[in-house]
Amino acid sequence: MIEYDRKNWVKSVFSFRGTALRRASTRILAMTAYAVAVQAVFQAATAYGQVDIMPAVFNLSPTAHAVLG
């Protein structure tokens, strides 16, 4: 059982002991790096005019999203 001080809740919130963060941290960092790389490539492509996504985004109908929601 993990004992904690009820009056010092900040220490309990930011404690890594007893959590799965140690096991998941490499996966979290890998997916964060992947997301940053994808976003950087997309931003570079749109900045240089190779990808024009705005007409495709604004022509979407919100009906499908409303049905799913």
Structure description:
With 69 residues, the chain is mostly helical. 62% of the residues lie in helices and 0% in strands. The protein is built from 4 helices and no strands. The protein has helices at 9-13, 21-47, 54-58, 63-68. The mean pLDDT is 80.
Summarize the structure.
With 69 residues, the chain is an all-alpha fold. The protein contains four helices and no strands.
Please describe the topology of this protein:
Elements: H1 9-13, H2 21-47, H3 54-58, H4 63-68
Provide tags for this entry:
mainly alpha; single chain; 4 helices; 69 residues
Helix vs. strand class: mainly alpha
Number of strands: 0
- If you compute it from the alpha carbons, what radius of gyration comes out, rounded to the nearest whole angstrom? 21 Å
Low-confidence stretches: none
Approximate strand percentage: under 5%
Distance between the termini: 41 Å
Largest sheet: none
Number of helices: 4
Mean pLDDT: 80
- H/E element sequence: HHHH
Helix content: 55-70%
Shape: elongated
